[in-house]
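sry for the spam today, last one i promise. struct tokens for design, 164 residues
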């Protein structure tokens, strides 16, 4: 699809984040399974549920545009996933993997926050107030998820890692 107008940019960005969110569903499942740490597993599972909600909201925005939901391959998220996969294949100790997983998850949140912040702004500029409000809801949940991940990372007991 050509992207020449702000409206086309909006659609492009919407399709990009729609792809990313769908990819993240599987990733969050894997992250929850890879940890023995109950609180971290719960955080990943809860964010997976929120991610389903993000996808539903994106579908509402597609409907407002009068368009079927479409995915545009998001190389940014794909790259983060591949980078993380390479690390998992290096077979880190469980505690090291926890920290690596929290880091990878934080990186995806930063990506999503940038995407939703700018999508909401574009929606407002295009006079699509309702779509802007919906995108803001996703933005706020991503910001809260990032804070939660940052807390879990800073509270993590590093001692086993440092001792190794
Ligand atoms: Fe999301
Ligand atoms: Fe997220």
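last one done:
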């Amino acid at each position: 699809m050509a992207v020449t107008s702000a409206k086309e940019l909006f659609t492009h960005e919407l399709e990009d984040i729609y792809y990313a969110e769908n990819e993240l569903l599987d990733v969050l499942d894997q992250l929850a399974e890879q940890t023995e740490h109950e609180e971290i597993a719960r955080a990943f599972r809860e964010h997976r549920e929120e991610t389903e909600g993000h996808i539903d909201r994106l579908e509402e925005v597609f409907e407002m545009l009068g368009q079927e939901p479409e995915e545009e391959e998001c190389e940014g998220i794909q790259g983060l996933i591949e980078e993380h996969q390479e690390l998992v294949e290096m077979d880190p100790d469980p505690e090291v993997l926890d920290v690596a997983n929290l880091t990878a998850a934080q990186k995806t949140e930063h990506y999503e926050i940038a995407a939703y912040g700018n999508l909401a702004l574009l929606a407002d500029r295009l006079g699509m107030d309702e779509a802007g409000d919906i995108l803001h809801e996703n933005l706020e949940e991503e910001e809260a998820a990032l804070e939660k991940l940052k807390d879990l990372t800073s509270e993590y007991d590093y001692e086993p890692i440092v001792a190794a």
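The pocket of fe (ii) ion (ligand 1) is lined by residues 21, 51, 54, 112, 142 (CB under 6 Å). ok im logging off now
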